[in-house]
Automatic annotation (TrEMBL):
This is Iron ABC transporter permease. It is found in: Cell membrane. The chain crosses the membrane at residues 62-80, 92-112, 118-135, 147-167, 187-208, 236-259, 279-299, 311-333, 353-374, 407-424, 436-455, 462-484, 490-513, 534-555, 581-608, 620-638, 650-670. Belongs to the binding-protein-dependent transport system permease family. FecCD subfamily. It comes from Agrococcus pavilionensis RW1.
Amino acid sequence: MTRVRPGGLALGAALLVALLLLAAWHVTQGTTQLGATELLGWLGGERGDSAIILESRLPRTAAAIVVGLALGAAGYAMQTITGNPLASPDTLAVNGGAGAAIALAAVLGVSLPGLGGAALAFAGGIVAALAVVAIGRGRGSTTQMVLVGTALALALQSVSTVAIILAEQETAGLYAWGVGRLSQNGMGTVAQLLPLVLLGIAALLLLARRLDVLALGEEAATTIGVGVGRLRLTTLVAAVALAAAAVAIAGPIGFVGLAAPIVVRLLAARVPGAARHVVAIPLAALSGAVLVVASDVLLRFVLGGIRSMDVPTGVVTSLVGAACIIVLARSMAGAAESESMTVLGSRTLAARAWLPIAVTAVLLAALAVGAVLLGDRMLLLGDVANWLAGRAGDAVRVTLDTRTPRVVAAVLAGVALALSGALVQAVARNALADPYLLGVAGGAGLGAIGVITLVPAAAGWLVAGGALAGGAAVGALVIALVGWHRLGTLRLVLTGLALSAGTAALTSMLIVVTDPYNRAKAIVWLAGSTYGRGVEDVVPVAVTIVVAVLALVWMHRDLDLAQLDESTPRLLGVRLPRVQVVALVLAVALASTAVAAIGVVAFVGLVAPHAARALVGARHRVLLPLAALLGGSLTLLADTLGRTLIAPAQLPAGVMTALVGIPYFIWLVLQAGRSR
């Protein structure tokens, strides 16, 4: 029989007391005044406030506790079987798979008997987790698995976004649910899934002794006779079942399964016996419950009763989880590994640089013509000619007056994002760097939505100014957290991903609090779209591109040297710090004004520079023009397809670029892992 030391019991008792106190406080919060006196009276048998407590307060508190228990235990088990301190239902894409499965089921009208949503969530979560573990294992797998899981989670989030757009009636309320929301209609769902959660935790406790051995290393476990493969699969199934139950109750509440185990591991290092799984798993479960309840208490305390009902609790937990990733990125194994710019190899596909540039320019021109003609209303070249001559009918004139600025916005934003990505990759000497993955695009989106929230009629330069302020703030924060001389490491990407999650959570909160029913606003600023763009929206990005091109004509040779190493530029008389600062300022300005023009579009700044480098090599004299043309073409194609495929409905450009960018990013991560 396993003996639990007093230290572990004391720690568990402390967490339980904290949970009970927070739960009592949580029950008193809401739109109706209810204090400790009324709560004690209800416990003593008074029935005056029983309807409020039983139908409104207790279901939300119970949901917070059950969700926290499930995610905390699931996260700790996932970290053990992967040997990865950043593994969690979020970073292994379990929450993303579960959420996408439920979203698709809502669109298709699919329902399962018995556990219903939990069964669907389990199916989506287990498929996603197995895919991440299968793809992400290998050399450098600690960081590689997290990057692959995060990319797959973004892809699955795009699936959920498409579901929301395609079936607005069937998916009503799914957007806020997708960030993690504890509001409940009675105790039915919680009561139905509580046995599943308890069963999942019990299964992990039965596996605790074998997990202790696995934690010592795979070789040690195999030597002792533990079936490592079977143990990992069994544990993963139990952990995914727990995460699926949490998603079915409250949606994907972010990073609880990451933060709670981290807290337990830090405490276990100081408490004898607390690291054993028979103790650590219940402690992680209690820590998760404390975290979720405390987050909801804080949310309702700061925003008040009515406003807090609209804000998903997952916003607060996502911010906590982002902070955990940033802290771990500074110390975890593999985070200091350098990502060389040579992961694609040194060969180029084109013998002459001018040929792919000319072909891409022709392609962009053809795409621009097609984009003007295609959409919910198909046009002919004659219609365009009449519009240019001022002889078009009202229907054609209105169509082209609204469509042409969208085409220009897509092209210019794509050009700006591609140039920004090329500059960041050169300065950081990091093959995985781009404005989205570094959080700059997310910061710009937060700044832009902040301006629009404060000044609803804002447009043009005012929105661009807010985006530039947000992007610059996040960019400066990334450099401060990572360190100037560590920009070429995986720490840069992990920190950027954490800040991207944080800024996305804050953006979601702003939208839900200030304009919860404006679905178009959420889609534009979280998934990227040219919807509603006008001439005034593209002027800032156009001016920024002109300034950047003039600067890059002067400094392209310096960038060639800057991407090599620290010493070569100095030996040749190049002032490297000045080149790096100017390049980063231009990169932030380009990314921010692009976001101000069309919202947050992912992976253009990653794919376009890499494709250009593969075609013409690393000389920026030819790399930058080709990357710009490819970026404009990719974004324009994505926007045109999004406007045309399901017209009159529209898919965000960011969803379409993710279909190309996410597989490419996963391939780059795997290439980098093989090269180490």
